[in-house]
Specification:
Layout lengths: L1 H12 L18 H7 L14 E6 L2 H18 L8 E5 L8 H11 L5 E7 L5 H11 L4 E5 L5 H4 L5 E5 L1 H14 L4 E6 L1 H4 L2 H17 L2 E6 L8 H20 L3 E5 L2 H14 L15 H5 L10 H14 L7 E2 L4 H17 L14 H10 L7 E4 L14 E5 L3 E2 L3 E2 L9 H4 L8 H10 L3
Parallel strand pairs: 1-2, 1-3, 3-4, 4-5, 5-11, 6-7, 6-8
Antiparallel strand pairs: 9-12, 10-11, 12-13
Helix pairs in contact: 1-2, 1-13, 3-14, 4-5, 7-9, 10-11, 14-15
Length: about 450
Amino acid sequence: MKKFFSLLLALVMMLSILVAPAFVKAEEAEDAEVADEAAEEVPDWDGTEAEFHIGVVTGTVSQTEDDLRGAEELIRRYGDSKDGGMITHLTYPDNFMSEQETTISQIVGLADDPMMKVIVVNQAVPGTAAAFNQIREFRDDIILLAGDAHEDPTVITPAADFCVSVDKVGQGYLMPYAAKEMGAKTFVHVSFPRHLSEEIMAQRHAILAAACEELGLTFADETAPDPMSDIGIPGAQQFILEHMDAWVEKYGKDTAFFCTNDAETEPMLKKIAALGALFIEADLPSPLMGYPGAFGIELKDVAGDWPAILKRVEEAVVEAGGGERMGTWAFSYGFTCTAGLGEFGKRVVEGKYEKDEETGYYKPEDIVESFEVYTPGTSWTGGYFMNVGGEKAEPWQNYYLVSQDLYVFGKGFMGLDEVEVPEKYRELSYELKTQEELEAEAEAEGN
């Protein structure tokens, strides 16, 4: 399916992508008919009264814009419930860590609607599991779906019907692999204690370090402020702007920088292009993740047209000096996760999807099919989230990790969807520390 998307890009963007041996060329015009079909415009909601409602909870534009845009796409297709349509959209507070009660009450409040049959939370920030558990107490007919859960798998999986996240485990190997192919000598991981105390984040961090060692890259950590702290999002972004020059001087231009926070990605991208460093992909990869703000890209006239968005972002990145040194996924994960989970829930209610008789859980292939509705011409790879021992044990058969190929601006697709992550990394043991322990360590190191 990836070749169809490659063609779609070639047709829409009118680009001739020249690729190095490690990259995948756009396919010939013989696939044009398929690509044209994939690019067909989906009509707006026609005003038909909805038979049930889907609640969608996302972050705001300032915190997770892509997630919110996915909700807007669902509303465009299926209508706003307040107008007789299907979708009820809410946003949780930017400072969700200190306002968990607000987040919980917002999610639980959706279940007061007797027509509510599905609730999607993306990102499933802390408090989501508690909200789902409360809903279960009085509404067992609602399908509860979590995107990119921030809570421990043992907490969120019993509460949700299904969870989906970026394959952060796979990222742990594939990002260093891509960085080396792009000429990196060092990989720098920028994060803070709250994130590193999350199991899937800690697992990826451990894999990154191990993969860098095996691939011959130097691995280093840098600590940034938590945007959920008193410093807020503006303060955290300013910190990145003020420190990138020193970090590039310290590690050199052939350094790939990675940040676990969405809000801090924008200033990092701006400085990486200016300083000539490398960027593989965002924590939640997307052409919209940080790039428009970093390079002042206007996209209103191409909203929802992902090939056109990618083309415009690519032009700006290359012009800013980031060509062949900065990448993304061609389709936004955050956008697709919100819209795709909403689509999946809709199809379950309509009887198109059912649980697997053997496992008792919904089927990952149905989740992927719903994602592909919003990413025409491309495909998703993935696998179940596994515990430290590599076991696909209950209840994690309802926790699926997804991934796309990497698109390098000015270069093309890298073919990472064809690269197999060695099983030893998915089974890698690591030490999971609490946020308090990590904060104490950071303070002791002067960070």
